[in-house]
């Protein structure tokens, strides 16, 4: 589904040039659950932002479903990102002034052809999947960290993406809640076939996934 071919990412500032990714080759198949591990600064977040079509490589090719991403216009890339990719972050990124249901509905606001009624139903379905049907009227501030991350996962799911990108999804949670979130991601992958790429610092969690890719200094080492 996704291929990274000879990817290089160089950040150039006035004083220093940083090679964040150095000739990375990675293929992610449909339905896979891949963990990415590596020390701080090795390029994990950079990799996720490229896979998530949030940034472009300095050189190399990213292919999505067999077609080079660079052959799409900016507008098409934005539409692809919105329809095919769901994001989950370490710090949830929920909007505190919106209810749980409204937070989950948000990504569908920018979808053409989705009525208000359908939006609501899909958000309710996504919240049901993450076990939060009883909390739809709550606000993020009234939830535990684990529950907030469940809301964020429901928000990532509501657009029915092909791919979920999770950047340290359990990084802010204690081990019990972290386990719960990990089990939820594993279930979504196994039961619903959602492809997941997860950056984590937690070796135990990484070992539960189908595949573990390790990075060091911008390069893939295993
Ligand atoms: N916007 C930027 N401008 C300049 N340098 C950057 C930028 N973003 C990242 N870098 C550099 O690129 C390298 C890789 O950073 P990246 O954030 O991808 O690492 P990481 O593995 O995700 O680290 P961490 O585990 O600490 O989040 C680092 O040396 C970082 O300083």
Task: Provide structural commentary.
The chain has 222 residues and is α/β, with parallel strands linked by helices. 36% of the residues lie in helices and 27% in strands. The mean pLDDT is 95. A hairpin with a 2-residue loop joins strand 4 (59-64) and strand 5 (67-68). The strands form two sheets. It has a six-stranded mixed beta sheet with strand order 6-7-8-3-9-10, sandwiched between helices. Strands 2-1-4-5 form a four-stranded antiparallel beta sheet, covered by helices on one side. The protein has a single domain (2-220), classed as Rossmann fold (3-Layer(aba) Sandwich), CATH 3.40.50.300. The longest helix is centred in the last third of the chain and has 18 residues, at 175-192. The structure holds adenosine-5'-triphosphate.
């Amino acid at each position: 589904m996704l291929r990274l071919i000879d990817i290089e990412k160089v950040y150039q500032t006035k004083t220093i040039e940083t090679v964040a990714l150095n000739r990375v080759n990675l293929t992610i198949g449909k339905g896979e659950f891949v963990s990415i591990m590596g020390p701080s600064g090795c390029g994990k977040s950079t990799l996720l932002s490229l896979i998530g079509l949030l940034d472009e490589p300095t050189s190399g090719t990213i292919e999505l479903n067999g077609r080079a991403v660079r052959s799409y216009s900016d507008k098409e890339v934005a539409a692809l990102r919105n329809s095919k990719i769901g994001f989950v972050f370490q710090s949830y990124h929920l909007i505190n002034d919106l209810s749980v249901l409204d937070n989950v509905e948000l990504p569908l606001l920018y979808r053409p052809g989705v009525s208000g009624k359908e939006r609501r139903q899909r958000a309710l379905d996504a919240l049901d999947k993450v076990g939060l049907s009883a909390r739809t009227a709550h606000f993020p501030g009234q939830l535990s960290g684990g529950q907030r991350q469940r809301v964020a996962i429901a928000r990532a799911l509501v657009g029915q993406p092909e791919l979920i990108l999770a950047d340290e999804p359990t990084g802010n949670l204690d081990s019990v809640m972290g386990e719960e979130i990990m089990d939820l991601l594993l279930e979504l992958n196994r039961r619903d076939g959602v492809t997941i790429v997860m950056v984590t610092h937690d070796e135990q969690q990484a070992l539960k996934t189908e595949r573990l890719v390790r990075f060091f200094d911008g390069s893939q080492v295993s």
